[in-house]
Amino acid sequence: MTETETAAQPVTDLKDRMLTALESVIDPELGCDLVNLGLIYGLSLTDGVATVTMTLTTMGCPITQVLQNMIETALSKLPEIDDVQVKLVWEPAWTPEKMSRYARLALGYYGS
């Protein structure tokens, strides 16, 4: 393993653990987690502050604050994370094609 691979491993491991934590955040309206719904666009950690870049299925989603609170709770369980910031973005726009195969099956989506 090269030095670059060794240095990258902790970052990859942390991102995997962050994604695993976010898989526990279930959209109460859809009954599927945010990761499999394809709503998580990016994750970063700087000085103990986790930033989650994400979108929602629709603008004006009535449960935006609920989801943000659930994300903060899930990620704050990781020892490296002291604070969580959720950054909502609208581009690229979310479409059902962003869902994982699991989410499509779970929600009965058989579109293109």
Automatic annotation (TrEMBL):
Gene3D superfamilies per UniProt: Fe-S cluster assembly (FSCA) (3.30.300.130)
Domain MIP18 family-like: 16-87
Pfam family, one: FeS_assembly_P
PANTHER family according to UniProt: FE-S PROTEIN MATURATION AUXILIARY FACTOR YITW (PTHR42831:SF1)
Name of the protein in question: Metal-sulfur cluster biosynthetic protein
